[in-house]
């Protein structure tokens, strides 16, 4: 009887300890309510690690760029506190389509004691649709087995494998990312994404004519990139995030849709995929090819 009491005490102590030692950035995120369906799990993980400040849409390729450059896959202690957990597989509604292998589906942050922090989004998680949540996804701390990307639920969402990564300090990451962001072409894309996200929250929303003009300029920028450097790879990833940012805004409700914007997005997508083809052609590092494959390029 005494042994049971001790075990119960230790279990309660560990749970309380984990709950009381949630990093401040994550605690603040769990109190945040996203007003639109753009910010996703990849963004949540980057913000939680201190690599990014802005709540916004982040494409899987942009997230993989961080993962490849700043993180190392772990073979032991997979659920160590602070590790980035990355889920690979294939979205269930794309199962029959050809691909280059497993693609990135989701990410979360391990908090130790079998707890994680994650954001689940409407588009990525079927259970989110079923419970009729009143906001676009939830920033939550939970037991890892309660995640819709674990166990049977994970299989239903297309997960085939979960990998664990330890990453370097946020100060080093931010310094190197700021250097990339300072390049003129990349800086234009970064600033556009930031201004567009701010405009979404404004009463009248983004200026669609101005947005189309920016997108048409981006098409020319992306078409001019050779596809031979790390900066070119990063620009392609940011371009995909810009595409996702505007697309998610237009898809959220009918009044957001604009045919001219839609056409510009198609041309930017084509230019971006042409750049990715050039990157694949010139890639000599197998890690770059692996990144492109995992991003489903």
Model description:
This protein is 53% helix and 13% strand. It has helices at residues 2-20, 24-30, 41-48, 60-70, 126-130, 151-156, 170-181, 184-200, 208-224, 230-252, 259-282, 286-294; strands at residues 71-73, 84-89, 103-112, 115-120, 138-143, 159-167. It has a six-stranded antiparallel β-sheet with strand order 1-6-2-3-4-5. The relative contact order is 0.14.
The percent of residues in helical segments reads: 40-55%
N→C terminal distance = 58 Å
Rg is: 20 Å
| Category from helices, strands and their pairing | alpha+beta
Using the 3D structure, state the CATH architecture of the largest domain. Alpha-Beta Complex
How much β-strand is present in the residues? Answer: 5-15%
Level-1 CATH class name of the largest domain: Alpha Beta
Largest sheet: 6 strands, antiparallel
Number of helices: 12
Uncertain segments of ≥5 residues (pLDDT<50)? 3-18, 123-134
Please, what is the average pLDDT?
87
What fold name stands as the CATH topology of the largest domain? endopeptidase fold (from Nostoc punctiforme)
Count of β-strands: 6
Give the total of domains: 2
Q: Globular, elongated, flat, extended or rod-shaped: what is the shape?
A: globular
User: Strand-and-helix sequence, N→C?
Assistant: HHHHEEEEHEHEHHHHHH
Order of the strands making up the biggest sheet: 1-6-2-3-4-5
Quaternary state reads single chain
């Amino acid at each position: 009887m005494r042994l049971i009491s001790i075990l119960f005490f230790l279990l309660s102590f560990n749970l309380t300890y984990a709950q009381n030692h949630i990093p401040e950035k994550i605690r603040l995120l769990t109190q945040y309510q996203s007003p639109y369906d753009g910010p996703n799990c990849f963004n949540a993980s980057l913000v939680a690690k201190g690599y990014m400040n802005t709540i916004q849409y982040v494409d899987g390729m942009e997230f993989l760029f961080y993962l490849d450059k700043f993180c190392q896959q772990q073979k032991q202690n997979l659920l160590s506190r602070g590790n980035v957990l990355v889920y690979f597989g294939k979205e269930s509604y794309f199962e029959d389509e050809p691909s280059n292998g497993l693609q990135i589906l989701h990410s979360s942050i391990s908090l130790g004691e079998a707890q994680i922090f994650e954001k689940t989004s409407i588009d990525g998680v079927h259970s989110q649709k079923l419970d009729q949540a009143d906001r676009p996804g939830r920033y939550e701390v939970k037991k890892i087995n309660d995640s819709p990307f674990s166990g049977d639920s994970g299989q239903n969402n297309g997960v085939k494998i979960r990998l664990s990564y330890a990453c370097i300090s946020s100060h080093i990451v931010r310094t190197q990312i700021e250097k990339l962001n300072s390049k003129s072409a990349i800086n234009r894309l970064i600033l556009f994404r930031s201004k567009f996200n701010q405009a979404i929250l404004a009463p009248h929303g983004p200026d669609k004519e101005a947005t189309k003009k920016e997108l048409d300029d981006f098409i020319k920028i992306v078409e001019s990139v050779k596809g031979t450097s790390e900066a070119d790879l990063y620009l392609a990833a940011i371009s995909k995030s810009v595409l996702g940012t505007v697309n998610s805004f237009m898809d959220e409700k009918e009044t957001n849709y604009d045919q001219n914007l839609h056409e510009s997005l198609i041309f930017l997508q084509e230019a971006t995929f042409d750049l990715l083809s050039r990157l694949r052609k010139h890639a000599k590092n197998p890690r770059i090819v692996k990144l492109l494959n995992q991003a489903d390029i």
